[in-house]
TrEMBL record:
GO cellular component terms, semicolon-separated: cytosol; protein-DNA complex
Keywords carried by this UniProt record: DNA-binding, Phosphoprotein, Transcription, Transcription regulation, Two-component regulatory system
Domain of life: Bacteria
Keyword Cell wall biogenesis/degradation listed: no
PROSITE patterns documented for this protein: OMPR_PHOB (PS51755), RESPONSE_REGULATORY (PS50110)
Gene Ontology molecular function: phosphorelay response regulator activity; transcription cis-regulatory region binding
InterPro entries: CheY-like_superfamily (IPR011006), OmpR/PhoB-type_DNA-bd (IPR001867), Sig_transdc_resp-reg_receiver (IPR001789), WalR-like (IPR039420), WH-like_DNA-bd_sf (IPR036388)
BP terms from Gene Ontology: regulation of DNA-templated transcription
Keyword 4Fe-4S among UniProt keywords: no
Protein name: DNA-binding response regulator
Length: 245
């Protein structure tokens, strides 16, 4: 069986141009990792470390979506959001916040924030939330559908369903994100560090045993009673290959 691999993301703007995303956060490491992940989706990315710079940049860059830290060094994130909304009526906004108090969430929604991710977060979660926001707003189009196919393993990203050999497989959210990362990189050996960065959080630390644990969970569900597709490359990491490989 052959592997069908989509481009990193066929999502594009209404006019067919790449999606534009502005990342506003004053943590350089987080901004770098997040910008890299977004660029890896084929999107145009700009970043700003404070609200003033971000607002000036937004006027020329005109992003489809903004990833906005709640706490900025100069202007409060909510104030930045209100000003963005005045100038870009349809922009989708994803808040990054270390706060998870109900009052804060209500304040953000009132100001026009679309969704939240609480720190620490996984890059896959941020990407999934952004895709969802942009699709719902009618600002992103995906002509090629949402299926990832590797051998007889099929993932419907939008419906969050996984089928192998025609049988539906129930996965937890983390198992799904781990499998999605493996399926987007078929036959490519992924290190535990790469998997931790992408599926867990940017500051998770070197807890590689968590990766091993979730790989074992996936194997029980994906490979049980079937020809294994998830393989360990000793001293390096893991690789997903179709049966015939």
């Amino acid at each position: 069986m052959h592997t069908h691999r989509r481009p990193p993301s066929p999502l594009h703007g209404p006019d067919g141009s790449p999606l534009r995303v502005l990342v506003i956060d004053d943590e350089p490491d987080l901004t770098e990792v997040l910008s890299g992940a977004l660029a890896g989706e084929g999107w145009e990315v700009r970043s700003a470390a404070d609200g003033t710079t971000a607002l000036a940049l937004a006027r020329t860059f005109r992003p489809h979506a903004v990833v906005l830290d709640w706490m900025l060094p100069d202007i409060d994130g909510l104030q930045v959001l209100r000003q963005l909304r005045q100038e870009l009526k349809t922009v989708c906004v994803l808040f990054l916040t270390a706060r998870d108090a109900v009052e804060d969430r209500i304040a953000g929604i009132t100001a026009g924030g679309d969704d939240y991710v609480t720190k620490p977060f996984s890059l896959e979660e941020v990407l999934a939330r952004l895709r969802g926001l942009l699709r719902r707003a009618g600002m992103a189009h995906e002509p090629d559908g949402d299926q990832l196919v590797v051998g007889d393993l099929v993932m419907d990203e939008e419906a969050r369903e996984v089928v192998r050999g025609g049988a539906l497989i129930e996965l937890s959210r983390t198992e799904f994100e781990l499998l999605r990362f493996l399926m987007r990189n078929p036959r490519r050996v992924l290190s535990k560090a790469q998997i931790l960065d992408r599926v867990w959080s940017y500051d998770f630390g070197g807890r590689s045993h968590v990766v091993e644990l979730y790989i074992s969970y996936l194997r029980k569900k994906i490979d049980a009673g079937r020809t294994p597709m998830i393989h360990t490359v000793r001293g390096v990491g893991y690789v997903l290959k179709p049966e015939s490989s």
